Amino acid sequence: MMRIAIFASGSGSNAERIIEHFASSDLGRVVLLLSDNPNARALQRASDRGVPAHFFSDWAEAMGLLQEYNIDYIVLAGFLRLVPSAVLDKFKEKIVNIHPALLPAYGGKGMYGDRVHRAVIAAGEKQSGITIHRVNARYDEGDILAQFTCPVLPDDTVETLAERIHALEHTHFSEIIEKDIKL
Ligand code: GRF
Prior knowledge:
This protein has 183 residues and is α/β, with parallel strands linked by helices. The chain has one domain (2-182): Formyl transferase, N-terminal domain (Rossmann fold, 3-Layer(aba) Sandwich). It contains 6 helices and 7 strands. It has helices at 13-23, 41-48, 59-68, 85-90, 114-122, 158-182, and strands spanning 2-7, 28-35, 53-55, 73-76, 95-99, 127-134, 144-151. The protein has a 7-stranded mixed beta sheet, with helices on one face. Helix 1 (13-23) packs parallel to helix 6 (158-182) and helix 5 (114-122) packs across helix 6. The longest helix is centred in the C-terminal third of the chain and has 25 residues, at 158-182. The two termini are 13 Å apart. The model has no long low-confidence stretch (mean pLDDT 96). The chain binds 5-O-phosphono-beta-D-ribofuranosylamine (GRF).
């Protein structure tokens, strides 16, 4: 049984789905949620579901918690910071992230949340989607595990596109994590 930690900086709707998915799995369990934002709704969503949730202010503290909870696998779900090399070294090939566009396009530093959708719409793209990838020392550049697409409609706003992308994330993220931890 893989002991999974989720890192989330914001709302945590993906975190919530992943927690629920693995609550009844034989392969893994979410046993910890960590946030760099003390006001993240993700913290509340996790503790409401019985998952220990902690704010951390520095990476030494986060590393201590990963050790204390015997974490095997890390999921970044709306986490906005770079993961330092100390964590990458310890969890080689065991950290995944989700990005709300089709990487390598619309990725990199500063490309997160609504900014991504705004850029996709401004460029007149007909299609967007999500990318689930391994995490390395650079923003959005690790090996891609899976991508899923959705249309961008002519009258889309940032909000309507974000909603479609979120639905895609909620449908697929847990399933790709499950495949990855089976390997
Ligand atoms: C998602 O769109 C994810 O792709 C991006 O941040 C958003 C997080 O949403 N990295 P939520 O906090 O899971 O609702």
